[in-house]
């Protein structure tokens, strides 16, 4: 089973880079949310980064 720290680490390198390149630094609150997320949510967020106009669209869009 993959724990939250491993999920975040997997997301952190490519995912954080993409998000910060498009939208600027990720807040500590958002980092905590990512760490607590399940793999399906993380995958959806990464898919949204490509077309989203803002962070709210990436993280607040209903699944």
Protein described:
The protein contains four helices and no strands. It is mainly α and 63 residues long. The protein has helices at 4-23, 28-36, 39-49, 55-60. The model has no long low-confidence stretch (mean pLDDT 79). The protein starts with a helix and ends with a helix. It has one domain.
Name the overall outline. globular
Count of strand segments: 0
User: Helix segment count?
Assistant: 4
Q: How many angstroms does the end-to-end distance come to?
A: 23 Å
Helix/strand layout:
Layout: H1 4-23, H2 28-36, H3 39-49, H4 55-60
Summary, kept brief:
The protein has four helices and no strands. By secondary structure, it is an all-alpha fold.
Task: Supply database-style keywords.
0% strand; 63 residues
